Amino acid sequence: MSNEIFVAFATQKGGIGKSTVTALAASYLHNMQGHNVAVIDCDAPQHSIHELRERETKLIDESLYFKALACDHFRKIKKNAYPVIASDALNALDDAERMLAEEEVKPDIVFFDMPGTLKSNGVVKTLSQMDYIFAPMSADRFVVESTLQFAVMFRDNLMTTGQAKTKGLYLFWTMVDGREKNGLYDLYEDVIAEMGLSVLSTRLPDSKKFRRDLSEERKSVFRSTIFPMDASLMKGSGIREFSEEIAGIIKPQ
């Protein structure tokens, strides 16, 4: 019996850090929590997560230091890096099924990084087959309104009518400026609660460390599809709490 859980990070607004959050949550759950994860990168044509994997693989191939580091890491966690499949919203489900049939180690969680607009061909159809959807938003009125519009449309037209298999749709705050008052978020959340929507308790900060990729110049890494996040960089990032909150909701086997 197939027990994998399909999870999408989806939004109607680009530039909200959706792909970064997907990569970080996948990395934490795969490398630190022991779950088997796969990522279907549907965010064509940029394919940010797949491009990151390609760059990292090239760096490892060309560096004895990174090669040894990767071997040591895989030995420690007793498994390989999670698969990253470049796809698009129209073919994502077929590519996911093909990957599941071919992978020797079956993933517990398949993350889908969706395009930043519902207008892309196949987005709504693919989202309707997700077990859980998580939608990022920032404390910008236009972003909040757009995200709420998406969430209400999807819930009312697809979830409540049984056209979607989705068990839960959750919003979450990202790019949180530490100088902003919590009262602003509390006000937004009061309105969101009145609409019958759920918001994760973890708020992700606006931090440059989220963009700290693997490179020859630096030895510590945060955003990676292969290596775990550097422990010192993880402090204050919210990624541990965010990923564990998601795992508590989706309950992978």
Please tell me about this protein's structure.
With 253 residues, this protein is of the alpha/beta class. It has one domain: Rossmann fold (3-Layer(aba) Sandwich). It is built from nine helices and seven strands. It has helices spanning 18-32, 48-62, 64-77, 92-102, 123-127, 141-159, 182-194, 231-234, 239-250, and strands at residues 5-9, 37-41, 84-86, 109-113, 132-137, 168-173, 198-199. The protein has a seven-stranded parallel β-sheet, sandwiched between helices. The radius of gyration is 18 Å and the shape is globular. Pfam families: MipZ (PF09140).
Write a compact overview of the structure shown.
The chain has helices spanning 18-32, 48-62, 64-77, 92-102, 123-127, 141-159, 182-194, 231-234, 239-250, and strands at 5-9, 37-41, 84-86, 109-113, 132-137, 168-173, 198-199. By secondary structure, it is of the alpha/beta class. A seven-stranded parallel β-sheet has the order 3-2-4-1-5-6-7, sandwiched between helices.
